[in-house]
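FYI - complex with adenosine monophosphate, inputs then prediction.
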Amino acid sequence: MKKKFILLGAPGSGKGTLAERATAKYGILQISTGDIFRHNVADGTELGKKAKEYMQRGDLVPDGLVLDLVTDRLSQDDAQKGYMLDGFPRTIVQAEALNKTLEKSGTKIDAVVYLNVPRDELVKRLSGRRTCSVCGRSYNVGNPEFAPAVDGVCDVDGGELVQRHDDDKKVAEGRIDVYNEQTHPLVKYYQAAGILTELNGMDGAVRNFELFSKLIEA
Ligand code: AMP
């Protein structure tokens, strides 16, 4: 069974949904740098204070703040059995730094899963996304497959569903631009490394999880 993955794709492409399902079925750990930053912002930590303004603008947090955090997270006990990196790496510099960290520990990424979704669909998904203010789970008011059972309430813990500030249409469009400029080049980078699998993000979460499962079980 393969256990070390990078989930690559624009904001709203379905990385989190894929990761959530793989955690539920295979117990693979999801490491979302966005979630880690949001927790730090909510807790008012030094890291959170530094990251907050970049996140609110929809810009990337500087590599210097991201790299130590990820190196530290990957060294923790629960990450030794495997993980899915969600939202990292987001730049070539981050990808190179990850290579170095993995080399040092004698491990490597098994596969990079790239979810390809057209821009207009991303904008639609991000503006319909609602997030549980307690557990961070995502829903979508524009798609019955991802709608909560009760409007505005998390199915899992009853928490209030809110719109992430950076899912506001204008900020979300900026984040897609940032993705295209800074993160999309990683598709070619991992293609050249021979470890990229491309999924059509329009095929739906069920189909894509089936394909991801095959990759995990291969
Ligand atoms: P996400 O939840 O992955 O969309 O991330 C939310 C925000 O956190 C991004 O818009 C960035 O500001 C920041 N962020 C998350 N991961 C990274 C990363 N690998 N590099 C730089 N900034 C990041």
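The CA atoms of residues 120 and 177 lie 12 Å apart. The first strand starts at residue 4 and ends at 8.
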